[in-house]
Amino acid sequence: MNDLNRLKNEYFFMPDATRGAVRYLTTKQLKETGTEAIVTNTLHLLIHPGPDIIQKLGGIKKMMGWDGIVLTDSGGFQVFSLIHSKKWQGSIDEDGAKFKSPREGNTYELTPESSIDIQMKIGSDVLVTLDDCRKSDLEKEEAQESVERTIKWAKRCKDHFEKEYGGTKKTGKLLTCVVQGANYPDLRARCAKELVSIGFDGYNFGGFVVDNDQKLVIDEMSAVIGNIPKDTIRYAMGVGKPEDILEAARIGYNLFDTVLVTRNARHGTLYTSQGIVKINNSSMALDEKPVDQNCDCECCSNYSRAYLHHMMKNGEAVAQTLATIHNLTYYQKLIKGLTPVCP
RNA sequence: GCAGAGGUGGCGGAGUGGUCAAACGCAUCAGACUGUAAAUCUGACUCCUUCGGGAUACACAGGUUCAAAUCCUGUCCUCUGCA
């Protein structure tokens, strides 16, 4: 698993395969986009199909037929977005989160320890500590609270990972943590420093990565990167638009993921070397050019914008597949263009 | 030919005297989406507007009424039964 050390000194874009699949793509198609690592989600996989089933089936990689890298997000973000925002019934305290899945009504518990256990059963290569994610415009007091809890939980995750599984040495897996601190650079810096003193294989910038004007929170991101070692994973969670990735890479981040690349593909916003192409717009109806003339993906080398437009407008699923293939290929090329200059 | 039912915006389809420029769905046209409750969500969708409104509109032509998509008369058209 020496391969994993590449995550510390190369650039990677990891598409989100939240439930163990990049939407609309087969594993073969996923590989062909140049993707080497994916992100799956602990909370979603906890609910379906459940960690025990995944373990019995030999882990998520075997299930998917995926021989690349798998990073499991801890579920901290979902605890925020589903429970804090009251979309799901649940409560959060010092020990973790309890919640009820609205689909079948079962109750679940996510603690620092159980999050690690679940990620182990999933068969992750890179684990993420459970963090206390909140909205970005917090009063300082609450931001501080989230930082304290995030650090405490990170420590518990690491202790559990080492005691129960023998840590990185024995498992060959990497353990990364999440840096919180809302939009307070000083809190971000402090959180990073304390996490570094505990010691992890990577430090992930968590929380929200853009402000209300959709601008990358570069000050907060800088405050973190300035306080973590260079030869570790520096993962900007949820970043982002192509220009945001370039910006984050410029200041030192090297791992990225975002749902934008796949979701926008499904919704008709395609990234190209000539800028954004809105494939659903009526102007595409007679456009016989490929989506991107400088792209050799399956979509661009075989089909016209007009054909893709027609299929999108009529709900042909293969259009979503082709669009996703294109966007992801574009992102992977973007990230590969960065590789030689990774610090 | 006789007897019923009916004709509403691009389409389907509510509404049966005022609160109707007309519910709802579809289609159309835009926009959004950043550790995915997302094949989702938002807005526009007669014309004009100084965004306060204004002008035409519910097959067509008349009429009743302070007021009509809604009531009456005629015309045209459609569907279903019976011949």
- Percent strand: 15-25%
| Topology order in helix (H) and strand (E) letters | HEHEHHHEHEEEHEHHEHEHEHEHEEHHH
CATH architecture of the largest domain: Alpha-Beta Barrel
- Average pLDDT number: 95
Termini separation: 22 Å
Q: How many whole angstroms does the radius of gyration measure? A: 20 Å
Largest sheet: 6 strands, parallel
Which SSEs are present, and which pair or pack?
Layout: H1 6-9, E1 12-13, H2 27-32, E2 37-41, H3 42-47, H4 51-56, H5 60-64, E3 69-73, H6 76-84, E4 90-93, E5 96-100, E6 107-110, H7 112-122, E7 126-128, H8 140-165, H9 167-171, E8 174-179, H10 185-198, E9 202-205, H11 218-225, E10 233-236, H12 242-250, E11 255-256, H13 260-267, E12 269-272, E13 275-278, H14 298-302, H15 305-313, H16 317-336
Parallel strand pairs: 1-11, 2-3, 7-8, 8-9, 9-10, 10-11
Antiparallel strand pairs: 4-5, 5-6, 12-13
Helix pairs in contact: 7-8, 8-10, 10-11, 13-16, 15-16
This protein binds one RNA strand of 83 nucleotides through residues 16, 18-19, 23-24, 39, 41, 44, 71, 73-78, 81-82, 87-88, 101-103, 128, 131, 133, 178, 204-210, 214, 216, 235-241, 244, 257-264, 266-267, 269, 278, 280-282, 315, 317, 320.
Brief digest:
The protein is an alpha/beta fold. It has helices at 6-9, 27-32, 42-47, 51-56, 60-64, 76-84, 112-122, 140-165, 167-171, 185-198, 218-225, 242-250, 260-267, 298-302, 305-313, 317-336, and strands at residues 12-13, 37-41, 69-73, 90-93, 96-100, 107-110, 126-128, 174-179, 202-205, 233-236, 255-256, 269-272, 275-278.
